[in-house]
Amino acid sequence: MSTEFNEYEAVIKTVQHYIDGAISGRGDDMKPGFHQDATIFGYVGHDLFAGPIQQLFEWNDGNGPATDLQYRFSKIDIVGTIATVRLELDNWTGHRFTDMFTLLQVDGEWKIMNKVFHLHG
User: Under DSSP, is residue 84 helix (H, G, I), strand (E, B) or coil?
Assistant: First the structure.
């Protein structure tokens, strides 16, 4: 049971890099949570925002700090070396997002492999 609990804590810690980067407005603060080959997908209006995760880091740098960000981990599911996380974010510089992450344990360390998001209207 404690090993399972430790894995949940490790997954949360990995996703926390993303949250911390949103709050600071620095893409570099997000990077430790992501695998170097991670991807991002979602819609901004009718436009598909898709490709390498570097696009998120660049958008975040340009967007600036989300100092009033509110967030909640609404679901975490872990099976062996894979995990999914659903994260609700509100007031990211005036925006509300639902994010879904897939994570993989790489060399014993959890890394976000993919982020899919919904930007609420």
Answer: strand
